[in-house]
Design brief:
The chain has 18 helices and nine strands. The chain is of the alpha/beta class.
Length: 484
């Protein structure tokens, strides 16, 4: 199936696993039994692999109709391979090299070979490495089959997520038509985008009053904020970055490093459409996954299906939106960036300049790179438990191809940029705050790290702003009474 065992012994023991949580200033790892990493590797990943097997077997009649009886052999081989991978994970075996048709096998094999042997097994490796390796191995079974090289075992979940979100999509589509170019509108869209994973559930539970309209963006942002807490909000700095860029001539590109498909991608597109329509960007580049990834991550095929689904929708507003977004793609206002396997590799982003210089150079041509979701955040911070008060820019460890924004709901122990004492206060009131998904951050750092967060403006001129810019809360007390 495209891989084979090393000639070295792959046995490992669990004697070096620890009962406690992951200590500060260390990599996330399944070694710590009170960590979310351990829970994921011990319980969640085996469950996901079992669901893949069940999905394949349930699809078997349709696959036989499409490919003929020979596909049964593919399915059996893949099911057996997934079962073996479950066993390897359960026994904390050493990672194996790739030897099949994987386009990125050279990079993966170099990474695995260079890993220290004590950290080359599932529970003792960095969690990021172990998780990425698992998903990469899973898809390698399909890549090396005869008929199912492009089979996405997660596509039904992404499609169902979108189809079950029609009420929320319809409301948001109507509420976002004709929004003015303003910081207020932008900040609302950013909040809705941040909490996109929860929105469909929340709109169903929200108690609308007689005065509330489902077509009102102000009401919908209240829906998005139900029981959600924003721990860091750099929206003003992001807005100012875009406004400053809009005053310059030439192309103003925004790179958007995608996370999930389904309804979340729909909210991504609402935000990106707004940026293009209001001249905050002349083009948006979507960076998607080259292969099915982390269950719900969006691929090129998912985008194409989403646009077709919306275009053919019975709701006139959604259909018009699908046609508009398709036109934006056709006219290259929004484009899918060239495929890069770096996004499905195990490396943190601070090594991009060494491991994929072309991708790094591409990002340097944009005015802003927006990294969406928990996995992108983990890769930005290297899956390392920093002090919660450490500056965002410090945790990027030199990764500064352009101005950077992170939109992330907190789902694991990696976080930075919090105010002093906030993490301790949260822990007292909510023991699971780091994995609940109820807390989020909107973080920003500019590539030049000017103290006023406006590239090219001297710090002595921090009160000199261009029309349309917004004063960050941290600076408002320093302004003169007459300053806007």
């Amino acid at each position: 199936m495209g891989w084979r065992a090393s000639t070295h012994s792959d046995k490992s023991t669990t004697t070096d696993l620890f009962e406690g949580p992951t200590p500060r200033h260390s990599l996330l790892s399944g070694r710590y039994k009170q960590s979310f990493a351990y829970l994921t590797l011990r319980t969640r990943m085996p469950g996901i692999m079992q669901q893949i097997i069940m999905r394949l077997l349930s699809d078997l009649p349709d696959l036989v109709n499409k490919y003929g009886e020979e596909v049964r052999k593919d399915v059996k081989q893949i099911v057996d391979a997934v079962e073996r991978l479950k066993m390897e994970l359960n026994r904390d075996r050493q990672f194996l090299l790739f030897h099949g048709a994987e386009p990125d096998k050279v990079e993966w094999n170099a990474f695995i070979t260079e890993m220290p042997r004590p950290k080359k097994s599932f529970f003792r490796a960095c969690w990021l490495h172990a998780e990425c390796y698992l998903y990469r191995r899973i898809f390698s079974f399909f890549e090396n089959s005869r008929h199912l090289q492009k089979y996405d075992c997660f596509d039904h979940l992404k499609k169902e997520d979108l189809m079950l979100s029609e009420m929320a999509m319809s409301a948001l589509a109507r509420a976002t038509r004709g929004l003015a170019k303003s910081y207020d509108a932008f900040s609302k869209l950013l909040r809705i985008n941040l909490w996109g994973n929860h929105f469909e559930m929340q709109i169903g539970a929200f108690r609308f009053t007689e005065e509330d309209s489902k077509d009102d963006i102000n009401v919908l942002v209240k829906v998005a904020d139900i029981d959600r807490i924003l721990l860091v909000d750099d929206t003003t700095l992001i807005w100012n970055c875009l406004v400053l860029a809009s005053k310059s001539s030439g192309n103003r590109i925004v790179d958007f490093i995608c996370d999930n498909g389904g309804f979340e991608f729909f909210t991504d597109m609402l935000l990106l459409e707004y940026m293009v329509d209001n001249n905050l960007a002349t083009q948006v580049r979507l960076h998607v996954k080259a292969i099915p990834w982390y269950i719900s991550d969006v691929t090129r095929a998912d985008i194409e299906w989403t646009l077709d689904f919306l275009t053919g929708h019975r709701d006139e507003c959604l259909s018009a939106l699908g046609k508009k977004w398709t036109h934006m793609m056709n006219t290259q206002k929004i484009v899918i960036a060239p495929t890069s396997y770096f996004w499905t590799g195990p490396q943190p982003y601070f090594v991009m300049v060494e491991s994929d210089i072309e991708l790094y150079r591409l990002l340097t041509t944009s005015k802003l790179a927006i990294f969406k979701g928990d996995l992108n955040y983990r890769k930005l911070l290297g899956d390392f438990i920093w002090d919660s008060t450490e500056e965002f820019i410090t945790c990027l460890r030199g990764f500064r191809p352009t101005n950077i924004c992170a939109l992330r709901t907190v789902k694991c122990e990696v976080v930075c940029g919090l105010s002093e004492g906030l993490a301790d206060s949260l822990l007292k009131n909510d023991h699971n705050w780091m994995i609940s998904g109820n807390y989020g951050v909107i973080q920003y750092t500019d590539s030049l790290k000017c103290s006023c967060a406006l590239p090219g403006v001297d710090s002595s001129e921090k009160n000199t702003r261009m029309p349309g810019m917004v004063v960050p809360p941290s600076e408002r007390s320093t302004l003169t009474p007459n300053h806007p």
